[in-house]
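Issue 218. Parser rejects a valid record. Input:
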Amino acid sequence: MSIWEYANPKKFIATTTPVLPWVMWGAGLCLAVGLVWGFFFTPDDYRQGSTVKIFYLHVPSAMMAINIWVMMLVTSLIWLIRRHHVSALAAKAAAPIGIVMTLMALFTGAVWGQPMWGTWWAWDPRLTSFLILFLFYLGYMALWTAIEDDDTAADLTSVLCIVGSVFAVLSRYAVNFWNQGLHQGASLSLDAEENVADVFWYPALVCIAGFVLLFVGLVILRTQTEIRLRRARALQARMTA
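Output the parser choked on:
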C-alpha cells in the first residue's frame, strides 16, 4: 500500500465517500459545542467585555485561511512533481473554502478591532498581508476559470500558489517580523505563557477542531465533484469529436 494509490480518482472517491458523513457530523458537533460553550458559558473579558467572544470565530477562520493556502501549496507541488490530477483538483477545490475563511477572518477582525482600536481597518502588517492573501485567492480562482485546458490551468495556478505562499507566511508571522502595528501577537500557541486563559482556551480548541473537520469534509466533497466534472467534460469531448 502506498499513499500515491489515492491519487487514482476512483480510489480517492471510493475511500473518502464512506468517511465523509462522519467528518461532517463531527464538524457539526464540534462547532455546535464550541460556539455555544464559548458564547454562552464563558465570562466577559475584564478589558474587552463581551467583544472578546468573536474570538471563537475570528481565530479559527484566520488559522484556516492560512493553512488552507499551505494545503494548496503542498498539493500544487505534488501536481508539479508527480502530475497526479487529484492533487491539482484538491487545490482547486480548497480555494473557495479558503477565500470564505479569509473573508470571515477579515470581517470578524474588523468587528473585533473597531471597539478595541477605534477603527474598522488599519494598515497593520498582519492585516495588510491578510488582505493580499485574499487577493491571491481571488487571482487563483480567476486563473482556473480563465484557462480552458485543465493541465495548463493546474500548472499556472500551482506557480501562483507558490508565489502567494510568501504572503501566507507573512500573514502568520507579520507581528514577529515587524515590531509595530495594532494587531496583537498569537492568542493560541504551544507556549502556555502566550495562551489565553483556560476558560477561553478549551472552547476555542473545540471550535478550531470544528473548523478543521468542516474544511476536510468540504474539500473532500468538492474534490469528488471536480473529479466527476472532469470526467463529464472528457466524455463530452469524446462524443463531440
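Fixed in the parser; the record now loads. The chain has one domain: 57-233.
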